[in-house]
Design brief:
2 domains, about 55% helix, 4-stranded antiparallel beta sheet, alpha+beta
Length: about 90
């Protein structure tokens, strides 16, 4: 789903989302008017942590993502070290 500012996306179950460049807007249309919630980045992080506490599958996915990021960071650092070493040997 491409991200376009202020474009509305149907997420399912009568829930719509849009992004204004800073916060995510969740909207649930109702007969008496829309119910709307705005999620700032800090609140989004808290919501993700809450979901991880509620659903083991979300928790496991977060752990896998963090592990992959750590491994990628270590790989990038090792690659940079090897590159610097090979440049030093070539001089």
């Amino acid at each position: 789903m491409p991200l376009t500012t202020n474009e509305t996306y149907h997420l399912g179950d009568g829930l719509y989302a849009s992004f204004d460049g800073y916060q995510i807007c969740l909207r649930a249309p109702r007969e008496d008017g829309d119910h709307v919630v705005f999620l700032e980045p800090q609140l989004w992080d808290i919501l993700i942590e809450f979901a991880a506490e509620c659903w083991p599958a979300v928790r496991e996915r977060l752990i896998q993502e963090k592990t992959m990021k750590l491994a990628l960071g270590e790989l990038q650092a090792e690659t940079e070290m090897l590159r610097k070493r090979s440049v030093g040997e070539a001089e």
